[in-house]
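Researcher: Structure for this, please.
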Amino acid sequence: MMAMWNRIRALIFKEFLTLWKDKKSRFVVIAPPLIQLVVFGYAASFDVNHVATAIYNEDNGLASRELIARFEGSPTFEVVAHLSQEADIQKIIDPKDASLVIHIGQTFSKDLLSRSPATVQLIVDGRESNTALIILGYAGRIVADFNMTWLHSNGEALSPARLVVRSWFNPNLESRWFIISGIVGLLTLVVTIVVTALTVAREREVGTFEQLLVTPFRPFEILIGKSVPAMLIGIFEGSVIIAFGVFWFDVPFRGNLLVLYIGLLLFVLAVIGVGLMISSISRTQQQAILGAFLFVVPAIILSGFATPISNMPSIIQDFTLINPLRYFLVIVRGIFLEGLPPALVFQQLWPMALIAAVTLAGASYTFRHRLS
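Model: Predicted structure, token format:
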């Protein structure tokens, strides 16, 4: 038994040494995750700021000027043009010089003073539908605040019901909190799958795999020796991103760190199983990278990282049940933002444990089959 563990330890050391000496593999492990973390952390955002806005005001009354002043004073909107005729709307929207045009009619102030319905037209560029909806939401909020202020200043009774918005878990609606916590799963997935997929394929390509087969190593020992370095690298990558998220990007951490690492370990094991299967059937590193890419892209799309799973067709939702990233994102976001209790985390842990068992068993079978 001691001799077996000595052989496995030697193989693990050899894997780390090979990984460190290979410039390409060393670059994959270190550089891309840090670059992607910075890019996603600062560039990726669901927030909409500095919306290019054009004003088409046909009314020179006090009310219209007050409304325009609210848009000009908002950090969300940036007034880039004042239009003089209706034909200018198309000219500024078509080339994307403005994403929103606020059209105030000639009788806006008069209608408000006479307590008649007064309308404001919001013309938004709908080519990016999600952004358009967010812009309309922000603009609608400004118009609603203007209405409340106008009613109060003109002595009219306020509505008996007043809307007060409070966002749980993310009171400032910082999309960065949502993105950075999800990046923990995304980058850990990418690094782990690539490192694992390259292990056997690299040895086949350089011709050392046949040498490994004539050693006293048994297949399951080789499998363990290939898996442990990838597991440690995956946990290390996840730890670095967690630390950056908490201490650099100020994402709150409200849950149990131990429970998070249990989820991280099961997630990495599930990914390693997939990576070893890809590596076992690949004869070159190029094939291994392609196989990893074919797994990573659907896994991210079907994980709920950017779009809610509940919005997907029912048959696609069924496919997400075999995706380990789906469960880990629930765990990491829940622990970061909600302080998810262990009892609720367990509902996501056991499916990942099952996926890990199936993928590792499949990798073992594929590995032994390829050897025979």
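Researcher: Any notable elements?
Model: Residues 16 and 229 are 6 Å apart (CA to CA). The first strand starts at residue 51 and ends at 57.
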